[in-house]
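batch_manifest entry 22 of 60
target: SoxR reducing system protein RseC
source organism: Morganella morganii
requested by: lab member K.T.
priority: normal
notes from requester: please return tokens only, no post-processing; we will run our own comparison against the previous entry in this batch. if the run fails, retry once and flag.
--- input ---
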Amino acid sequence: MVKEWATVVRWQDGRAVLRYGSSAGCGSCKARAACGSYLLNKLGPEAEHQLEIPVSEPLVTGQKVEVGIPEGSLLRSAMLVYLTPLLGLFAGAGLVQALTESQSAVLAGGLLGGAAGFLLARKIARHWSGSADYEPVILQIGLPPSELSIDMCES
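--- output ---
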């Protein structure tokens, strides 16, 4: 399960809007200088994303929740998004190259194959969108901000 902490922006009628930021790498080791994921995150803009999911329990603005999605679903989604257009590009270019020797026709066939792969991935993603396997779920709900207080005792 891939997990991320998010902050409640609003909750209304059983639907919560959550805000979460990009994490700076996985954080599981101290090899930040040699980690490609960490370096790529540092290059890009600090982005915050919003997500709307159903939640039966009432939440308050500012409350923290842990959201998760199964690793297999995430991997299948990534493969669909990246590999389907790439395979379409190779298939289109290969098919045209088998029929003609014109390099411009092979280029056009590759581009058309890539576009067809993209459209196929989009259609499959729409089909998958109704599946609960591809929907994030709330794993933990933190205390509301009003419930957290620190009392300092003077000795």
